[in-house]
Amino acid sequence: MNDFKFHVKPIGLFDMLHFKKMVPARQKALAEGSLECITAKRGANKLAALFHPAKQVLTISEIYSHGENAKTYLFSGEGLAPFRAGQYLSFKLKIGGAVLTRPYSITSSPKEAYEGKYTITVKRAEGGFASGWILDNWKVGDKVTCSGPEGIFYYEPLRDAKHVIALAGGCGITPFISMAAAIRDGFEDFKLTILYGSRKEEDILHKAELEEIAKATDKVNIINILSDEQKEGYAHGFITAQRIKEAAGNEQCSLFVCGPCAMYEFLERELNVLGYERKFIRREVYVAPQSPKGIPGYEGDLSKELTLTVRIYGNIHKIPMSANETVLVALERSGIDAPSKCRGGECGFCRSRLEKGDVFVPKTLDYRRMADAASGYIHPCSCYPLTDLAIEIWPE
Ligand code: FES
């Protein structure tokens, strides 16, 4: 049998004093109590709020034009969230009765966020709704609302090769301008070769800025390729497997791709020729096409006019919806403030439960977890209705 020994201490003077003070101490603490939220005061929460603010309000300080159809906006603000070169901001817009978002890659160096500055470049999209409105309406002094920096399209030394070949088309150059500037400023450390495809010389965005960066650091190299024009000093044609091979030499490289949907389809074939391991190919998510027409696997009836029943904020709305648009666009057109950020199926911010009906989800935009897909969750930004639908949305 175990021997237990108990030491019983007599109550001492200090214990008595402590006990005597306990009640007044508690009364004092209760009197000083406050309803103020304490979470943001803790170190980790403060840091999380700095890096991932729910929203940021920016002031447009300067606007630079790139011809008629593209502009760069310089924003200023206090306490801007730091970011990784390659990330984007999702802007909240109210256009007529519609409430919508648009993601734009940050083009400035991460260093400038610490100086209270971000820049983005907006190009007028053919048949686009928001880009044209921004270009025609935003002016110096306006205040705009956006998310914190989002996205995972940035250099990760544990995964990516030391030499990155950027494959950019049109406005897809924007994240690479930020990466090039980050290398120049010592915020990133890798070698960057940019293969930038444009139709004509006049379509090249940020040409002078990129050339200046390439002069300032030997880690950044840019090759402009024109498809519709032959000009001295430029390569002619497209970004092909052969060009990528030449840029890589004998090094293991990571390929970072950002551009329009058609470029992704073309490059898919070229990248297959190269036979790179998947982990060395990174693609920036692209916004879901306006219409499912021509997307492989789509067999719906584009002329169908449908009804969407949506439960959000405890309310139920019944709104018209076309088979020729994403579910998110139908929500936005009706003025429903539904959550969204990337608009390409990746971030999961718009995740909703499909209660009734069928949707078409393009394979290339289906980033849902397997369990989500199996249990009827959808990302309204990247699916197209095939029938009348009922969905439930949980806002932020
Ligand atoms: S907005 Fe990112 S998944 Fe829908």
What binds here, in terms of ligands, is: FE2/S2 (inorganic) cluster
Domain count: 3
- Strand and helix order: HHEEEEHEHEEHEHEEHEHEEEHEEHEEE
Shape estimate: globular
Separation of the first and last Cα atoms: 61 Å
State the major sheet: 6 strands, antiparallel
Write the CATH fold name of the largest domain.
Rossmann fold
Number of helical segments with 4 or more residues = 10
Strand order, sheet with most strands? 4-3-6-1-2-5
Question: Overall mean pLDDT score?
Answer: 92
Oligomer: single chain
* CATH top level class name of the largest domain: Alpha Beta
What does this structure look like?
The protein is of the alpha/beta class and 396 residues long. It folds into three domains: 52-146, Translation factors (Elongation Factor Tu (Ef-tu), domain 3), CATH 2.40.30; 163-283, Rossmann fold (3-Layer(aba) Sandwich), CATH 3.40.50; 305-393, Beta-grasp domain (Ubiquitin-like (UB roll)), CATH 3.10.20. It is 24% helix and 28% strand. It contains ten helices and 19 strands. The strands form four sheets. A six-stranded antiparallel beta sheet has the order 4-3-6-1-2-5. Strand 1 and strand 2 (70-76) form a beta hairpin. The chain is globular. Residues 340-343, 345-350, 379, 381 line the site of FE2/S2 (inorganic) cluster.
